[in-house]
Write a structure and sequence with these properties.
Chain lengths: 377, 377
């Protein structure tokens, strides 16, 4: 870079706000790890060999070091190019450091203002479902193996019972028993018919576990066929593919984030990404309106404190981005719903799947809808 | 599903080979975890409520249980729809189980035969670089902050010195100091000119840390501008986006996989995915010709045994897919090259970055090229 360009870059950056990341560091090497992060996430180059202006403006800056945590700030221009590079700066090569966990992100206005973020969020979906204060109700079409007609019949029963969102089980892909297009067409039509007959307002959300080069086309097809939301698996398609679907004005439907393939990022207590940061902050940056995660006490292993953290970061301030819906799932039962609402509050999407099918599906579904619609009583 | 369709499905599946996954289970609950995986990765539904044919044909089957490992097989049709659903079956919701690690994958011919896999592999790149037996040499353009002209000059020096592959540092995105298109155009042109002047055959590989809805267009632009390979970050864009780039016949260039954002999948010894399975098997299924990972004894934390495992699974039999190049990097020095070749053998892409810049870049680069071209002497 010549001197003139270098000077103008410096001038442009001097007043810029900073991208801030906090990492918990195990093993007592916090200061060394902090310095390594500053270099590793930017120039990946011996700092003493870099020109002074690059050391001053591009290398990260250690803002704070305690015995257990380090806070580093970056020139937001380092994250130039969108969410992929933002996540790359925050956790790209650091993900390969043992004993480091990303526990906090502060996204500066210069970055967040360029992001659309969740299109609906809590208020948008409350309006969509005319649900002023109550939790929303979501369930999943299953089991894999059912034909499109069988899944459509199931969806109609659930819509007429008053469920808000009827999603595909996340593993329903393009299997021979229910090819994607046939399934989406049959279920979307059944939900529309059920709504028309019963006055319900359910929406169908197919699972978009599609090939990367077909995901947008599949999403468009889903919406054309009548789908009212999209279930996206960012652990598999990448968070930015979810962001691209959320940003697409032709789709303009709610985005539901599913946690498949994401577990390793959070499970190691001394590595990875804090539960709330991944399923709250990052999901919001990537445009999710609803973030599904395994609730405590279900089939999986998240602790109550981790779940509360997700709930909190789905709804805490994040630039101009609206708060979104936490959706604890994974083996939930009807009996647990009051406890779950007490734990998360009413801004929650209750997700009950298999448990509805023990006994009569319609009866169980209506019972749960009735319970949720009368929580205040 | 009606009886006829069900019967024909059964007939179609009876002779099919199986998708096999082996998991290491910590905590002594191997049998329970095995049963849970069979259900969780398929029907996600109370098994006793599923029709008999679904239990027989869709739920996974426990093939083997020892005190520490379980092997489960799946009907390959469960993975219908491509690599996304294949990875979803192998590690989607299981990723949320604590104490479970995916340590082995056997992909049946019915799945692998439908995959293109790596386009070049070891033999293809040996032919491309006219390198009959020697390791290949790769380096990275850095540090971030350099202008397109400065990076182009650096690339020319490295090409004339005889490096095979000159890649962008993986963090070079669309920053103001070197916007993507300007950088790609300048560097590609410089490498072509250097090749023409010196008789070298270097290729330039830009970093495709692009937005999901622009990655294919950026890849096409890169190749049009003269890029000879593509650096892809599957931890950020998803493995299937890498697969889509590898499969694209208009691009038809080598694919280099970078480990950014993938660390959490391997670091926890009792969770995640075995190093060789992720950086070897999965990278190959996703079309990588070269798989970069942090070498032992560098800036990161992989152990020699984990690195050897990656080297082995880059090259062991995997359907009709060719073996690929392991590329250990992350703070490598010229002095360590003979040791690295001894460790991995000659089918290795040596990756040296910042260390080349201490002293004269051209001199250091030529010295390393000379060393590698005379390893047999």
């Amino acid at each position: 870079m010549n001197d003139e360009a270098s000077t103008s870059c410096r001038a442009a950056l001097r007043d810029a706000d900073r991208l801030v990341a906090t990492y918990r560091v195990s093993g007592g090497h916090a200061a060394a790890v902090a310095e390594a992060i500053c270099v590793e996430q930017t120039i990946e180059f011996p700092a003493d060999l870099a020109p002074q202006w690059i050391r001053d403006e591009i290398v990260g800056v250690v803002e704070l070091i305690t015995s257990e945590e380090v806070t580093v700030s970056f020139n937001p221009a380092v994250a130039g190019g969108g969410l992929v590079q933002l996540l790359n700066v925050l956790w790209g090569n650091v993900s390969l450091f043992d004993g480091v966990r990303l526990v906090g992100i502060e996204v500066p206005p210069s970055i967040s203002s360029a992001m659309r973020g969740p299109r609906f969020g809590i208020d948008g979906l409350r309006a969509r479902f005319d649900a002023t204060t109550r939790p929303l109700l979501m369930t999943a079409l299953k089991p894999m193996g059912r034909s499109p007609a069988e899944l459509a019949e199931m969806a109609a029963t659930l819509a007429m019972a008053g469920f808000d969102i009827i999603k595909d089980d996340h593993g329903l892909a393009d299997q021979p028993w229910a090819p994607r297009r046939e399934r989406m067409a049959a279920v979307a039509a059944a939900v529309h018919t059920a709504n028309a007959r019963s006055g319900s307002a359910a929406i169908y959300s197919p699972s978009l576990n599609s090939p990367a080069d077909r995901i947008l086309a599949d999403a468009r097809e889903a919406v054309e066929l009548g789908a009212g939301a999209l279930l996206v698996l960012p652990g598999l398609c990448g968070f930015d593919a979810m962001r691209a679907l959320a940003d697409d004005d032709e789709l303009a439907v709610p985005i539901i984030s599913h946690p498949a393939f994401l577990g390793a990022h959070v499970i190691h207590p001394e590595h990875g990404i804090r539960h709330g940061v991944l399923f709250g902050t990052v999901a919001r940056l990537a445009g999710a309106d609803i973030s599904i995660f395994p609730n405590y006490g279900g089939r999986f292993s998240f602790a109550p404190q981790q779940c509360a953290d997700i709930g909190a970061l789905c709804r805490s301030p994040l630039g101009q981005l609206p708060p979104i819906w936490p959706s604890p799932g994974g083996g939930m039962t009807i009996q647990r719903m009051p406890e779950i609402v007490q734990f998360y509050g009413c801004d929650v999407v209750l997700l009950v799947g298999g448990a509805l099918h023990r006994g009569d599906l319609g009866h169980n579904a209506r019972r749960l809808v009735d319970l949720v619609h009368h929580l205040d009583d």
